């Protein structure tokens, strides 16, 4: 028993017994590497105005998309769930540029799942012509006739 830590030696049990008995407790324990501070005090605040302006511009761009507008209409703020609904990245938290860009990219990708269903092509083109004229074949001459000539 000399190879066991002194606490286990005092208890007179081998390591296997102690591990098996403490397993349910260890699942609920907090790892040493995890901070016990409240969430809002764990992260650093971004103070660079240029970075904050750039981030706000990216957020505003995402909020102007049709997907975001549909999301606002369909899901009231009180009913939003973090794992299920898209969350706007926190522009005030200090992130590396790469981390921020990845978060914005992921957020925008999730917003696309809220895009309205695409509408069938109807109406008129830019010159006032019907869309049907765009679908008419330009020339029905076979390709072989063009190459032989």
From TrEMBL:
Family: Belongs to the SLBP family.
Record keyword Transport present: no
Pfam families, alphabetized: SLBP_RNA_bind
UniProt-recorded name of the protein: Histone RNA hairpin-binding protein
Region entry Disordered, spans: 78-99, 111-149
InterPro entries assigned: SLBP1/SLBP2, SLBP_RNA_bind, SLBP_RNA_bind_sf
Superkingdom of origin: Eukaryota
GO cellular component labels: cytoplasm; histone pre-mRNA 3'end processing complex
Function: RNA-binding protein involved in the histone pre-mRNA processing. Binds the stem-loop structure of replication-dependent histone pre-mRNAs and contributes to efficient 3'-end processing by stabilizing the complex between histone pre-mRNA and U7 small nuclear ribonucleoprotein (snRNP), via the histone downstream element (HDE). Plays an important role in targeting mature histone mRNA from the nucleus to the cytoplasm and to the translation machinery. Stabilizes mature histone mRNA and could be involved in cell-cycle regulation of histone gene expression.
GO molecular function list: histone pre-mRNA stem-loop binding; mRNA binding
GO biological process: mRNA 3'-end processing by stem-loop binding and cleavage; mRNA transport
Keywords, alphabetical: RNA-binding
Positions of the Histone RNA hairpin-binding protein RNA-binding domain: 47-116
Assembly mode: Monomer. SLBP/pre-mRNA complex interacts with ZNF473. Interacts with the Importin alpha/Importin beta receptor, LSM1, MIF4GD, TNPO3 and UPF1. Interaction with LSM1 occurs when histone mRNA is being rapidly degraded during the S phase. Found in a ternary complex with ERI1 and the stem-loop structure of the 3' end of histone mRNA. Associates with polyribosomes. Identified in a histone pre-mRNA complex, at least composed of ERI1, LSM11, SLBP, SNRPB, SYNCRIP and YBX1. Binds in a cooperative manner with ERI1 to the mature 3'-end of histone mRNAs.
Organism (species): Molossus molossus
PANTHER family from the UniProt entry: HISTONE RNA HAIRPIN-BINDING PROTEIN, STEM-LOOP BINDING PROTEIN-LIKE
